[in-house]
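Hello everyone,

My group is preparing for a crystallization screen and wants a predicted model to guide construct design. The compound we'll soak is fe (ii) ion. Before spending weeks at the bench, it would help to have a computed complex in hand. I've included the protein sequence and the ligand's SMILES below. Output in structure-token form would be ideal because that's what our pipeline reads.
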Amino acid sequence: MRNYGLLAAAAGLSLLATAQADAAGELNLYSSRHYDTDERLYSDFEKQTGIKINRIEDKADALIERMKAEGANSPADVLLTVDAGRLWRADQAGLLQPVTTEVLNARVPEWLRHPEGHWYGFSQRIRILFYDRNKVNPMDIQTYESLADPKMKGKVCTRSSGNIYMLSLMSSIIAHKGPETAAKWAEGMWNNRARDPAGGDTDQLRGIAAGECAVVVSNTYYFARALRKDVKGLDKDAMSRIGWVFPNQASTGAHANISGAGVAKHAPNKENAVKFLEYLASDAAQEYFSAGNDEYPAVMGVGLSDSVARLGIFRSDTLNLSALGENQPEAQKIYDRVGYK
Ligand SMILES: [Fe+2]
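Reply:
Good plan to model first. Here are the tokens for the complex, ready for your pipeline.
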């Protein structure tokens, strides 16, 4: 009888556990990121909350198109992607809804989130200058503006102007200096090019290693990744040749962008979606989330991963990232007008 009682109790417990899991429900995450640390990031959330995460992974633009096509029937609860410009595009398409909570407001700095909570930044990628230590004096490239200085003639490499990172950088210059100054900057930088834009940010860093480029624009995580693990074309010798500058430290701060997420307009599991965003802002999740892509955490006081710590700390531009989306069409027009490929 006693055994039977224990069995019955155990069966009862497991029924209870199942009921709790059902009650906790699920979360449909549309995500354009996939890193090694993500497994732990998601399994910790599932353990803490009992909420099951269903991941739908694709390129950001494909996910946005999918959500548009699904409309009010979309199962998406959270859209997770990189670059404020892209989150802005999703928001403009009416795919996100406002969410404000004390936790999110307290933990995510104001400039890294949408003013009405349509999206939040959960890690920071800083767009900075990398240079050939043999060819450039870092004192000559302390600002983004210096890339347009005739002194840099034949030295500058960037990726193409249609890339969202280049559009976001230009958008921040428009916000700070106005479109006319921004156009002069783009023109000067174009005139200083060492070669026509090609490849991604890592290719710009490789351009330094190959001796083709003396100063390049790249997001921090591409370099930090090459510090952490082998990246083709960036061996130890190449890496030791590359120096870096966080620009505009005496004025507007270095251009920051984010990986971020927002709650989907038609989220069937809105409560779980909000819980997930709050979880992403927690200390433990912040460490996984930022370290997974060698990015800086968004929340103040969270430790840096080893590779990121080697890049050091900096003063960030505190321009609200919404401006990056708002100025995006004008940014492309300016690049096109000055013939920046
Ligand atoms: Fe990237």
